[in-house]
Structure formats: C-alpha cells, structure tokens
Amino acid sequence: MDIKPHLSRKGFTLVELLVVILIISILLTIGSVALRGSGGKGVSTAIAATEALFDEARSVAVGKGTNTRILIDIDDATSESYLRRIAIAYEELDDDGKPTGDWKLSSRAYTLPDKVFFSRTFSRPDHDGAGGSLEEMNLTGAGGFYDGKYLYYEFNSEGICTTGLSGSNYTGPSFVIGSGARAMGQDPKTTSEGRRDFAGFVIWRNGSTSVFRDPTQIIGNSDPQTF
Predict the structure, then answer these.
(1) Tell me: the pLDDT tens digits for 167-188?
(2) Residues with Cβ < 8 Å from 130, sequence gap 6 or more?
(3) How far apart are CA 64 and CA 16, in angstroms?
(4) What is the helix (H) or strand (E) element at residue 138, kind and residue range?
(5) First and final C-alpha spacing in the chain
(6) Cα(72)–Cα(28) distance, rounded to whole angstroms?
(7) How far apart are CA 45 and CA 77, in angstroms?
(8) What residue intervals traverse the membrane (predicted)?
(9) Which helix (H) or strand (E) holds 104?
C-alpha cells in the first residue's frame, strides 16, 4: 500500500499580512503625492500638451507645404474658452499650390485645464527684449463654435517659426500660462497662493522649444496680479 506523504500548507501569518498591507498603503500614498505634484494646478500638464501642439503645427506646415498657426482664443470674455482654447489652423492652397488666405482647423482644439489661462502679459514675440505683442487674426468659416478672434504663433512651410522673425533677425517668442481665477467677462487674475504659478517656453527658429525652469525667467522678481 502506497502511503502518500502529508503535505502541510502554510498560510500567511497575521504579521506578514499586516506588513503587506503597510507596504501597499505606502505605495498608494507615494503615488497619490506624485500625481498631485505632476499635475499641480494643471500648469505642468498644460505645458507638456501645448509643446506637443507646437510640434504638431510645425509638422503640419512641413507636411502640407503651407503656413500654420497656433491659435489662442481671445474672442469673447464671457466664454469659458477665453484664453483657454488653443487650436491649430493651416492656410489652404489653391490648385497652383499658392496660399489663398483662407484658414482651416487641422484638428480639434485643446482647452487648458480648469483655472489655467494663457498669459497675454508674459507671452511675447521677443521674450528677452520684453517687447511687442502677438498678432491677432479673425477665423471664419470654421463653424460658429470656433469662429472668432485669436492671437497666434506661425510656422511657414519650411517649419520655421515666423513669429519673432524680421528679415534675417529672429527673437525667440515665448508662450506662457499661469493659474488663477476669472470672473465672467473679465481677464483672469492671479490668486494669493498662485501669484507665481506660471510656466512656459521659448520657441526657437527651427520650432524647437525650451521650457522655463524657474518662474523668474518669466516674471522676474515681480508679483503679478493680472495675466
């Protein structure tokens, strides 16, 4: 008669279970803190998204052989999209491949996270020189939802950023956003806890971007109250 060996099954002890639960709790805490830090008030996330939009606009310009523009909505201060909606448009070409002056959206627009706004004060065609204002355009024929007035940055068909380009001279324009609050019909304002919560990047002639690593590169030592 064969006698099968007795196999003892050893389970987890209470101490081992408590240790596992403790480790899981620590990991969950670290993960939640990391997520809060990476998102902040949406500024960090929005900068990464808008950098990708500039890359896309340059690619569309080269791919279609035409001009493209990154548009920032400034049409209606009573709209939720005011200083928050960002879109890419390209200039249509005629049968001979010449620009027609008509602009068409290349994709759906991106909206900045809640309480994050484009800064008209700190976004300039010449960031180092702190001079000038971005150009404006009226978009028509894109449907009532998107038609309106926009600020814009432009790339030509060679993928060169023409915002800040004057002849052979190029001054790096900046794209800056910040967190704040906005009453309907008014421009956004900074809050006491987010007075220096700004981020952005400079766009170089070839379309590459350099992110500002410190708010002082954007606003200096000032304590801004408006965008």
Answers:
(1) 888 888 999 999 999 998 999 9
(2) 124
(3) 62
(4) strand 136-139
(5) 90
(6) 38
(7) 24
(8) 12-35
(9) strand 99-105
